[in-house]
């Protein structure tokens, strides 16, 4: 009951306006210091001090009055008790000493009047100790009941306590920037090297990583800045895993290339990115493979405004192509990637010609015109409808774009003598459960069949899983949901996905294109699968908030399980395990042993699929897709499906 009353009392004090809180602090300081003076006089005389005259009262308690006056003049009451620290205590001591000097001068001028000189000398350490102790006790009480100790994502007008991980020149610059900030207060450095532990940099001490909990408890630390720009991916993932239980908002200094000016500001710090959570070391690209399909070539990128397409465009621009053609049906997306590529032109020694085309691959006359007029030699076909739920709701649109338009486009490339055609595929093409996955597998089969008959064009496919920074990525979704205050939506507690950074996936696609001979389905090594539920929890903690659960009802963000959507699988695969895959000259690129369909058998099935789409017969179209794609089972439809014996024979 007493604790409950104390909690309510302290909260009521904390909620008062700043001016009223300051009046209370001044009053309490005066009462405390007056008690110190009375105790010192009592100790000096060995009996209770009872002033007999008014002037004795005034002179005896002039010291506490002068002290709070000095505190006000030197803005001591602007120091937050919870963040007092070593220098704050020294500041208090200096103010008490100054007040004692003024008090001593006053007593010399007016006479001692019963106040021994020894009391004045003892007043400095005793008064300082009392004031510091009072603030530490107040901080402990406030921390204990959680008053304003962890301002969450909503923000606050007061300074946020910050730790910096790492000891280097960048960390020192970051500390200076933090000290200049009106919204941040520097607590100290954290470093896990024994050589730095216990040392000081400027006014701030370097603490061991295992002291983090004490620092969080003592100072209410809310943010930690990782100032190690050359930190390996595995080391960063290990550090982030260590930081998760503390629910600190993590900010990371950019890599060295991004710090061209050599100066660091708080505005340059970035939040957690998907690649930080993966902890995956990227293999440096092989320069010869990287540029083999691009250097000196006329390169066409379809879907150039999308996540993969735009990253491919950026990389290709730097690999000395002769001409780059960007094709996209979205005006806004094409405008964005066109501007980005034009900005790159000034950075390369031999800038390519840049040509942007607004249009769709579903327009054969446009496709033929682009191929002819630009003498296209290499095609990266990234244009596709990729969002499983959307394609599941609009199967005819998905089939029309991902299958039929791809088939016409690929044939046009063969007719025009394009040297290399690279299809960007998906792990959802393996044993597909969704319409989107089935359309991507069908596109792979089309590319394989064309590779069998084409004499001049190398047709190949590159298959990989989820890209962290792509549009619609679960990482971006979670980040937006956390910033909005939740809830975070997860389809299923056990759902697992493969992830790769946009940078690495693009490099591997370019290298796979460089080694292609025709007919391959290249599969990228995506590393270990990631449990989406674990990713959501990691992001919540590393963005400085707490998960709201039954055990922690006062948490900030709740995780809600919404169930698997139509067409989604718990676990995605990259290869058909019964067929396997073989190594290539690159350690992260494999060649899947995929069965293919003879061109003569596939062509009439594609024609039947086209006819079904033309008459808007969804049931017939899905039945045709099921017939072509091994393992795909179309949802219940009105039209009867072909019998299993009518499945196309795979080779």
Descriptive report:
With 651 residues, the protein is of the alpha/beta class. It folds into 3 domains: 2-145, no CATH class; 160-271, NAD(P)-binding Rossmann-like Domain (Rossmann fold, 3-Layer(aba) Sandwich), CATH 3.40.50.720; 287-592, NAD(P)-binding Rossmann-like Domain (Rossmann fold, 3-Layer(aba) Sandwich). α2 (18-45) runs antiparallel to α4.
The parts where pLDDT drops under 50 for at least 5 residues are 145-157, 638-645
Name of the top-level CATH class of the largest domain: Alpha Beta
> Which sheet architecture does the biggest sheet show?
9 strands, mixed
From the structure provided, what is the oligomeric state, counting identical versus distinct chains? single chain
Structural class: alpha/beta
Radius of gyration: 35 Å
Mean pLDDT: 83
Number of helices: 22
How far the N terminus sits from the C terminus, by CA atoms, comes to 79 Å
Q: Based on CA inertia axes, which overall geometry fits?
A: elongated
How much of the sequence is in beta strands? 5-15%
Q: What percent of residues adopt helix (DSSP H or I)? A: 40-55%
CATH topology of the largest domain: Rossmann fold
What is the assigned CATH homologous superfamily of the largest domain?
Answer: NAD(P)-binding Rossmann-like Domain
CATH architecture of the largest domain: 3-Layer(aba) Sandwich
Number of domains: 3
Kindly state the number of beta strands. 22
Strand order within the widest beta sheet: 9-8-7-10-11-12-17-22-21
């Amino acid at each position: 009951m007493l604790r409950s009353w104390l909690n309510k009392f302290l909260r009521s004090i904390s909620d008062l306006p700043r001016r009223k809180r300051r009046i209370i602090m001044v009053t309490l300081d005066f009462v405390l210091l007056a008690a110190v003076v009375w105790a010192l006089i009592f100790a000096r005389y060995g009996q209770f001090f009872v002033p007999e005259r008014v002037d004795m009262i005034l002179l005896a308690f002039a010291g506490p009055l002068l002290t709070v006056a000095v505190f006000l003049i030197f803005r001591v009451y602007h120091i937050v008790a919870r963040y007092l620290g070593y220098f704050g205590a020294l500041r208090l001591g200096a103010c008490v000493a100054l007040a004692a000097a003024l008090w001593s001068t006053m007593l010399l001028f007016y006479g001692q009047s019963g106040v021994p000189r020894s009391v004045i000398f003892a007043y400095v350490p005793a008064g300082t100790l009392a004031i510091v102790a009072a603030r530490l006790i107040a901080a402990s009480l406030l921390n204990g009941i959680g008053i304003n100790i962890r301002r969450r994502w909503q923000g606050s007008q007061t300074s946020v306590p910050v730790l910096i991980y790492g000891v280097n020149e960048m960390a020192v610059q970051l500390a200076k920037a933090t000290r200049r900030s009106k919204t941040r207060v520097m607590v100290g450095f954290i470093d896990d090297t024994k050589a730095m532990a216990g040392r000081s940099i400027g006014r701030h001490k370097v603490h061991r990583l295992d002291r983090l909990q004490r620092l969080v408890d003592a100072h209410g630390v809310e943010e930690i800045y990782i100032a190690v720009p050359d930190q390996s991916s595995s080391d960063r993932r290990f550090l982030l895993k260590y930081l998760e239980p503390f629910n600190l908002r993590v900010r990371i200094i950019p890599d060295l290339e991004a710090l061209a000016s050599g100066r660091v500001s708080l505005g340059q710090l970035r939040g957690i990115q998907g690649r930080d959570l993966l902890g995956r070391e990227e293999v440096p690209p092989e320069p010869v493979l990287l540029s083999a399909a691009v250097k000196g070539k006329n390169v066409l990128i379809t879907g150039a405004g999308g996540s993969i397409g735009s990253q491919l465009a950026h990389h290709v621009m730097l690999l000395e192509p002769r001409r780059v053609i960007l094709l996209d049906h979205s005006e806004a997306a094409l405008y964005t990637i066109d501007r980005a590529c034009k900005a790159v032109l000034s950075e390369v020694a031999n800038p390519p010609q840049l040509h942007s085309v607004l249009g769709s691959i579903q327009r054969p006359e446009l496709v033929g015109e682009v191929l002819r007029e630009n003498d296209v030699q290499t095609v990266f076909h990234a244009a596709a409808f990729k969002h499983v739920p959307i394609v599941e709701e609009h199967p005819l649109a998905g089939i029309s774009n991902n299958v039929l338009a791809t088939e016409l486009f690929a044939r046009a490339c063969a007719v025009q003598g394009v040297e290399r055609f690279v299809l960007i595929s998906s792990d959802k093409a393996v044993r597909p459960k969704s319409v989107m996955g089935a359309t991507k597998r069908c596109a792979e089969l089309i590319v394989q069949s064309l590779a069998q008959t084409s004499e001049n064009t190398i047709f190949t496919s590159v298959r990989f899983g989820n890209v962290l920074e792509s549009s619609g990525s679960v990482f971006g979704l979670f980040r937006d949901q956390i910033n909005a205050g939740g809830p975070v939506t997860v389809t299923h507690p056990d759902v697992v996905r493969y992830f790769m950074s946009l940078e690495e996936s693009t490099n591997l696609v370019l290298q796979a294109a460089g080694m292609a001979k025709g007919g391959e389905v290249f599969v990228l090594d995506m590393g270990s699968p990631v449990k989406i539920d674990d990713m959501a929890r990691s992001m919540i903690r590393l963005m400085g908030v707490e998960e709201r659960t039954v055990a922690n009802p006062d948490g900030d963000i709740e995780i809600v399980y919404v169930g698997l959507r139509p067409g989604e699988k718990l676990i995605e695969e990259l290869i058909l395990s019964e067929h396997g895959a073989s190594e290539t000259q690159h350690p992260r690129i494999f060649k899947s042993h995929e069965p293919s369909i003879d061109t003569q058998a596939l062509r009439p099935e594609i024609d039947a699929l086209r006819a079904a789409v033309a008459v808007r017969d969804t049931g017939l179209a899905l039945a045709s897709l099921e017939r072509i794609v091994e393992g795909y089972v179309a949802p219940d439809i009105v039209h009867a499906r072909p019998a299993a014996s009518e499945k196309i024979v795979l080779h």
